[in-house]
Prior knowledge:
Elements: H1 3-15, H2 18-25, H3 29-43, E1 48-51, E2 54-57, H4 59-82, E3 91-97, H5 99-102, H6 110-116, E4 120-126, E5 140-143, E6 152-167, H7 168-174, E7 189-190, H8 204-207, E8 215-216, H9 220-228, E9 234-237, H10 238-241, E10 247-249, E11 256-265, H11 272-287, H12 289-292
Parallel strand pairs: 3-4, 3-5, 7-8
Antiparallel strand pairs: 1-2, 5-11, 6-9, 6-10, 6-11
Amino acid sequence: MNWDDMRVFLAVARSGQILGAGKRLGLNHATVSRRMVALESALGAKLLNRLTTGCELTPEGQRFLQVAERMEADMIAARSEVAGEETTLSGTVRIGAPDGFGVAYLAGRLPEFSALHADLDLQLVPVPRSFSLSRHEADIAITVDRPTEGRLVAAKLVDYTLALYVSRTYAEAHGLPQSTDDLPRHRLIGYVPDLIVSPSLDYAHQFHPQWQARFSVSSALGQVEAVRAGAGVGILHSFIARRHPELVLVEAIKPIRRAYWLVYHESVRPVRRIQAVAGFIAQAVEKDRALFA
């Protein structure tokens, strides 16, 4: 069995398209198709159903994917050992994170790690609505939910709180809500419901069952800026809001709690550069645990 054919199969399985796999591997459509036919012939099994919209794995393909990923993990581990990654970290590690954590926290701390490893490239990217570690769209992801499906390794990083804040100028002009019953009488800032990346982030109803935002921003940092500008009452990450002395906590209404998780695919567990970056993130958060309290 040809390892190159296995590599092509993994790319097709992860992209769901022969054309997409070809672009990822730098191969043309015909070559990818030919490699898949050769692999199916060698195995004596049909691995893919070709559809007009792409490809889907057959039951045999699903079973073979697990085998292929184990082989990939072994190859990665062998390459790391032979290349001497034990002493020098090199290559690229892509970290996907929500903007509240990624931009407001990680972006200011990852340069410390980067400075220690000149041959390592770090990439920090936002987590979109549809995101797949199994397709290697990122090496490490910071999520707000513990994953329940797929061959993923997850570790809880830290709990954090979300609370209501207003600007000092807004408080002087309109006062502070004294209870949840007061909220409908204030101008409320919120998120765009159909753009949230996780049901656990649909939390406005926990502050008021009829939370009606008059101004909605699809990013956590955008909501911070709107509240700072005096636009109204917003639900902000406390660890971000505390940085801004012009923001006032609405103490009469209790905050809610959420958690961040560090996640990566099981196939990259042997890769030392990924373990090193994951370890650095976990240590940084542990050091700053009081910031998130």
